[in-house]
Specification:
CATH class of the largest domain: Alpha Beta
Largest sheet: 5 strands, parallel
Oligomer: single chain
Number of domains: 3
Bound molecules: iron/sulfur cluster
Helix content: 40-55%
CATH architecture of the largest domain: 3-Layer(aba) Sandwich
CATH topology of the largest domain: Cobalt-precorrin-4 Transmethylase, domain 1
CATH superfamily of the largest domain: 4-hydroxy-3-methylbut-2-enyl diphosphate reductase, catalytic domain
Structural class: alpha/beta
C-alpha cells in the first residue's frame, strides 16, 4: 500500500494556539460552544482541564473565567461577559478578528457590508453582529435575491467567512462587482484552508481512497470531504481513530490521508498508527510518502 500523507496534517495555527493556551490555564473556565469543531480535541481538553461547554451566554456567572472559541463570539455576547465582570481568555483566531475589524469599520462608515459565508456558522454570526448594515450571501442565487433592494450607488464592502470555498467566493464577487461600482472586496479566506484544498484537489484523482480526518461539524473538513467525494474513487471522513475500519483500506493500493484544521497532530498520528498496525497484522507492506 502506498500511503500518502498530507503536508498539512494537524491543526492550523489558530486552533493550535487556542489548544495550547487552554491547556496551560489553571482555573475552571466556561466556553460558549466548542473551542474548535472537533470532539476529540474537546475531549482531550476536558480530561485535563475543568472546562464547561455552555450553549447560552446567560449560563455564565459573575466573575467566571470565559474562553472565547476560535470562531469568535458576537458583540452582544462580549458585552454580557464584560458586564458580568468575567475574565476573558480570548481565543478568537487573528484571521477572524481581521474580518471583525472590517465589519466594524464598515459599520462606522455606514457602508453596506456583504459577507460571503454560511449564515448559520458561529463565525459568520459573530462577524455580522459587528455591523448593522450586513447581508450574508452564500451563492449567486442568494446574492441576486438579497441584494435586489440595495441601492446601486451605495458604498459596498465585501468579505468572506475564513473557511469559505475560494472558487465560489470569486464567482459571487464577480456578480456583485457588476452590480455595485463603489465596491471594496477583501478576500479574507484563510490561507490554511486554501493550501489544504489545493493539495486535496491535486492528489485525490490519483489515489484509490482519500481519508479526511475531521468532523462533519467543521466547515473546512466538510469542504475537503466534498472535494474528495467529487474527485477520488472513494472518500471517507472520520473524526475519531476508534471509527477506523480497516476493511475499507485492505484492498487499496494508494491511500491519501489529510486532515481538517481543527484536528490535533496526535489524533492524525493515531489514525496512521492504526493503519500501520492493521497492515502489519495482514502482512501488507506500506510505502509511506509525504505529498509534494
Ligand atoms: S482555519 Fe484559519 S481562520 Fe480558522 S482558526 Fe485556523 S487559522 Fe484561524
Amino acid at each position: 500500500m502506498i500511503l500518502i500523507l498530507s503536508k498539512y496534517l494537524g491543526p492550523c495555527y489558530g486552533v493550535s494556539n487556542a489548544f495550547n493556551s487552554v491547556m496551560s490555564i489553571n482555573s475552571d473556565a466556561k466556553v460558549l460552544g466548542d473551542i474548535a469543531h472537533n470532539s476529540v480535541l474537546m475531549e482531550k481538553i476536558k480530561t485535563k482541564k475543568n472546562i464547561t461547554t455552555i450553549k447560552d451566554i446567560h449560563e455564565i456567572s459573575r466573575g467566571d473565567t470565559v474562553i472565547t472559541r476560535t470562531h469568535g463570539i458576537t458583540l452582544e455576547e462580549l458585552e454580557i461577559i464584560k458586564e458580568k465582570n468575567c475574565q476573558i481568555l480570548d481565543q478568537t483566531c487573528i484571521k477572524v478578528k481581521n474580518v471583525h475589524k472590517i465589519a466594524e469599520k464598515s459599520n462606522l462608515q455606514e457602508k453596506k457590508f456583504i459577507l460571503i459565508g454560511n449564515k448559520k456558522h458561529p463565525e459568520v454570526i459573530g462577524i455580522v453582529s459587528r455591523c448593522k448594515n450586513a447581508i450574508v450571501v452564500d451563492s449567486i442565487e442568494s446574492a441576486k435575491i438579497l441584494l435586489s433592494n440595495v441601492q446601486l450607488n451605495q458604498n459596498v464592502v465585501v468579505a468572506s467567512q475564513t473557511t469559505f470555498d475560494e472558487v465560489k467566493f470569486f464567482k459571487i464577487c464577480e456578480f456583485i462587482k457588476k452590480k455595485f461600482p463603489n465596491l471594496r472586496i477583501y478576500n479574507t479566506i484563510c490561507n490554511d484552508s486554501i493550501k489544504r484544498r489545493e493539495e486535496i484537489i491535486k492528489i485525490s484523482s490519483s489515489v484509490d481512497i482519500v481519508l479526511v480526518i475531521g468532523s462533519l461539524k467543521s466547515s473546512n473538513s466538510v469542504r475537503l470531504f466534498e472535494v474528495a467525494k467529487k474527485m477520488a474513487k472513494e472518500a471517507l471522513i472520520l473524526e475519531n481513530p476508534k471509527e477506523l475500519d480497516f476493511e475499507k483500506f485492505r484492498l487499496k493500493n494508494k491511500v491519501f490521508i489529510t486532515s481538517g484544521a481543527s484536528v490535533l497532530k496526535e489524533t492524525a498520528l493515531e489514525f496512521i498508527d492504526k493503519i500501520f498496525y492493521f497492515c502489519k497484522k495482514n502482512s501488507i507492506e506500506i510505502d509511506l510518502k509525504e505529498s509534494l
